[in-house]
Amino acid sequence: LGVAFVEIHAGLDEQAQPGYSIQTLLDDGKIAGVPFSVAGGVKVDTIAAVRDAGADVAVAGGAIYSAEDPAAAAKALRDALAK
Length: 83
Hints:
47% of the residues lie in helices and 13% in strands. By secondary structure, the chain is α/β, with parallel strands linked by helices. It has a 3-stranded parallel β-sheet. The longest helix is centred in the C-terminal third of the chain and has 13 residues, at 70-82. The model has no long low-confidence stretch (mean pLDDT 94).
């Protein structure tokens, strides 16, 4: 069976490691050769890079569920993609 889609993910423990960068996930996605999604560090200041790397899906869990105002956080992410 061939791979049709891949999720490139870094858990909270990996994100907490010194030197973690979402760029590693983006680089892995670019070389995957199939459509991909990224989860792990997707925030307002990184979501444009996720889009520009060619990701089909950006999973911004913590950026929304840990926000004081989740609805405003989701809107800010959407607005950042529109730029």
